[in-house]
Recover the amino acids of this structure.
């Protein structure tokens, strides 16, 4: 039996994104490698059971994988979550998602990391890349400056939005929109007949934006940025984080997994995530 | 001498938007009439001096007008501010802005109102219409629901964004982006050769969005929505409001007025606004 930390590493079948188009897969592997390289010493081995590391629906037409590693007690990392879903659509298409999120605990107020690629077919992609603020940015302009202004996170967003095939993506949930920062990449790429353009955009501007977000997060957030949080503030910060985590479970998982995988599998996967999220 | 409350009313030269294209002018007059009709009993007469009610640059190529009425002591209205600027651009063009903002005081946490039309020529318009949240929306999902979800403020935004000539407007200031709600209309309308389309869009979708925002604000915000704010919370709310007001002065006024009107006029106008804003 392979130790769970090895199962969860890059080379494992779980973290290999077997169904993703090559450009998406290469990008996700690059991002995971950057996170692993930097955070490996701060992360505990994965304790995710095999039936969550890899799962499918009874018909075998939908596949998915979720892996989570919690931060070690001395680290500011709460958890790193990576996942993918693959699902045959009615008709010729298929849907492939890939995500990487990394949350910090309440020893710091530095932002969380979120990267999500949702490809509804070779020509259509929804993309969310952001450092999620953990403070009211209106009340904390210094926070805005430290993590979003001085890091120039707006510049890869702008490069992406200037592309002809790109348009804004607005989550139907106003709450989800509210958790995003003002430099969030939240876009739809619709290549229509120019399907080859998708690969170019993913390797190009999408890759640049995602790598920049991960690098800034590793350097400034997981790397010790943010104000130290005094004991009295921790509870409020945890409550705020909890609201975000609960909403992610609700909108990303509870709304989609049962439909794709049936109730039993969905409950197993959601339950495991709720355990780590403590929600 | 005309009493200032009459000077500030719809029929006066100040609030008549003399330089605006007809569609913009009709819209602004409709919005002001709705606000006046509802709030007149709650507002004190304007005390804005004539040189701020109407001003121009020494060359006479730029004109502007600012009028402000504070809320009466028993009302939840802090102030209503209306303004326009007109400026000949180098070359054949001219710029016309029109704005209406209405802030509440700390007896309530209900949102402020902001409507801004900035027309850089017959074919190009920047548009910001929003109810500015006064709470961290992540911490207060009930606030999001009360003012933004149940009021369906997202629907006129969506109608506008679906138009072919419309694209998102991102303020260069990340702070300004942070003060907007997730249903904010922040758009550029660029009609290019189809200049006649501008009038149609202003009378149509822009008008619908602005009228809806004003109606919701009058009904639910100035009309007594929001949680009553307990004494201990007032200071925090005022501090947050103060940060927003200071930033509006800084980005909208201090950055633009001196260039358009010269230092002396700019200082007079900005000083008057700072007095009402208490910043």
């Amino acid at each position: 039996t392979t130790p769970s930390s090895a199962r969860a590493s890059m080379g494992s079948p779980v973290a290999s994104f077997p169904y993703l188009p090559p450009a998406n897969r290469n990008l996700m592997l690059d991002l995971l490698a950057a996170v692993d390289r930097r955070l490996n010493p701060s992360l505990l081995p994965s304790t995710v059971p095999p039936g969550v590391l890899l799962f499918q629906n009874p018909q075998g037409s939908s596949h998915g994988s979720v892996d989570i590693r919690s931060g070690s007690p001395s680290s500011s990392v709460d958890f790193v979550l990576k996942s993918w879903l693959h699902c045959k659509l009615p008709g010729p298409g298929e849907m492939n998602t890939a995500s990487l999120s990394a949350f910090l605990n309440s020893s710091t107020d530095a932002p969380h990391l979120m990267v999500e690629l949702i490809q509804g077919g070779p020509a259509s992609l929804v993309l969310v890349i952001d450092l999620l603020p953990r403070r009211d940015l209106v009340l904390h302009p210094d926070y805005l400056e430290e993590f979003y202004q001085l890091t120039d996170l707006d510049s890869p967003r702008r490069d992406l939005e200037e592309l002809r095939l790109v348009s804004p993506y607005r989550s139907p949930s106003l709450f989800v929109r509210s958790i995003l920062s003002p430099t969030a990449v939240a876009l739809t790429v619709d290549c229509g007949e120019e399907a080859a353009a998708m690969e170019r955009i993913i390797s190009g501007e999408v890759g640049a934006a995602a790598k920049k977000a991960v690098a800034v997060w590793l350097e400034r957030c997981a790397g010790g940025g943010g104000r130290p949080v005094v004991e009295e503030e921790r509870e409020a910060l945890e409550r705020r984080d909890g609201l975000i985590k609960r909403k992610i479970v609700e909108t990303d998982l509870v709304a989609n997994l049962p439909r794709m995988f049936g109730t039993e599998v969905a409950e197993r996967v959601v339950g495991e995530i709720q355990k780590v999220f403590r929600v």
About this structure: Residues 1-11 of chain B have pLDDT under 50 and may be disordered. DSSP finds ten helices and eight strands in chain B. Chain B touches chain A at residues 136-139, 141, 144, 148-149, 154, 158, 161, 168, 170, 174-175, 177-179, 182-183, 239-240, 243-244 (CB under 8 Å).
